[in-house]
Design brief:
Elements (H helix, E strand, L loop, with lengths): L29 H12 L3 H11 L4 H30 L3 H43 L13 H20 L1 H35 L7 H11 L14 H10 L11 H4 L12 H26 L8 H9 L1 H29 L5 H15 L4 H4 L1 H25 L9 H5 L5 H20 L8 H21 L4 H25 L9 H27 L4 H38 L13
Helix pairs in contact: 1-6, 1-10, 2-10, 3-8, 3-10, 4-5, 4-11, 4-12, 4-13, 4-15, 5-12, 5-13, 6-7, 6-10, 6-12, 6-20, 6-21, 10-11, 11-12, 12-13, 15-17, 15-18, 17-18, 20-21
Amino acid sequence: MATSGFDPQQSLDSVDDEQLPVPPHKQHGAKHFLGLYAAEHVAATEFVIGATFVGLGAGIWDILVGLVIGNTLAILSFTLITAPIAVGTRLSLFAYLERIAGNVMAKLYNGANVVIFAAISAAMITVSATAVRVLFDVPPQVAPYPTDMAFVIIAFAVGAIVVLVAAFGFNALSEFAGICAPWLMVMFTAGGMVLIPALSESVTGFTTLTSFSDFIAIASASVFTGINAEGEPGIGLWEVIGFAWAANTFAHFGLIDMALLRYARKKRYALATSTGMMFGHYVAWISAGLMGAATAATMKLSILVVDPGDVAFYALGMSGFVIVIVAGWTTANSNLYRAGLAAQALMPEVKRWKVTMLVGLGVMGASCFPFVYRSMLPLLTYAGLILVPVGGIAFAEYQLFPRLGMTRYWANFKGLADNRPAIASWGISLIFGFGLNVLDVMPFYYLFLPTWFVSILVYVVLARRAGACETYPEKEKEQQAFHERVVEHHRRKAAEKYREGVEDKTLLSKGIKVMWGIVGLGVPAVLAWRVMFESPDLYQYYVNRELFYDITIWCTIIYFAFAYWGLQRSKQFKRREPEGTPSQASTG
């Protein structure tokens, strides 16, 4: 019997569902992933990254063209690399890696995930704290470390909420985060629109734009100037493309998002990542750059040290506090939840909520240091560099081994406690990738590409020598029998527990959707349009902007109140059984 990975003889009733392939009744269509990726990738991070592009001196055409190319490459990476393995195995990378690589590799990988996702969580808590500190008149934290004890208290308070929700109430928050996506899209766009007339007046002397060329002239003169914060030529087209592509390499090349895309009914549904890439990582980044530049000019500070809370308040008024807190909070919770899952894999005897609380204490401490969130750009890139080789190993085993006459799951079939070729391949790839970085032979945004290819090549060579070319007919029969048992297990579980909910067609529910759609989204969009296109002079601009501030906060309250009400009604209908459906007691 294999001692590595998953035991095919184990009773399925004792196995956590996370370790089993996703059954058909839990799979989703394209609409689900359109909303899921919009919610995840329109987040507080965008305030930081948009401002970072300005500080790095990207030019306007480099931004407009480079982000399209880079984000398109990211969408294709999700679709061509991640989705086929996720849909083919119906497993998360955590479960798949345990089956192909053994315990040591899985523990090393989970340890890396704890550190990476804890750091991202800490950064998002700090972003939320920058909004809360404005409410208490705490001065901006421009140093890498906290300079005011009140900010430390705020960061710990915000962090405590995040930790508790991630430990005990993540499911409820993840549902609520889904309804935030449309509002975040509208408000990020509105923030840029509201500040464009002020930027226009500072450059041209006029508050109105007459053409797209006016926007290009204003943005290139005051925001994306091609000159960095030190007054030197900034990054160019290739750097912008590289960062947009590399920002989520841990998710696509690194295969982390197998955890999400394993639920897709078809591989092509990975194209739904376009809502996150083309809005969150295009429109929101550009809009955040506009907002950050305008705020920095007003506060007479470098854009690299302007708080997201100040940026959001200047662009959106009181609604700005909401967008920073909500976006930072939801993103921090999802990443802390991931860190907790990875930590539990290291300490399986400890309950997940206890491990999450333990990791959360470290996250709360790190969130007090502003340099963490200001380092998001390199953090995301280096996180990808660390995790991408593992994705390369999994890609090689799933996609290349059958084509090269090699056997999937060979280490498990061979009875190895650990897949040493996989461990060695990861180590060699990391030395190679970070060695390239030290030698500075290419922009670090692109380091993931050669590192990924090296991990694939090294693993194929080492695995071939270690026994991956051998055949294991008896083990393959056991695996096939195991898969048949899984199918029957899911069929039985579905018959016992799964009930298809009835569609909510009530007039009240339709009225709720109309209310949050028109008042919560439509009114702010119209008011932002009015500020941008119906402000012929500064006086009228200030009048329109103040009206936008005053009304939008009430629209925000209405949106969240009615959207949450609608969510609760929808959940009630999903729990109902259609007429004629047998109850659990009479099933089977």
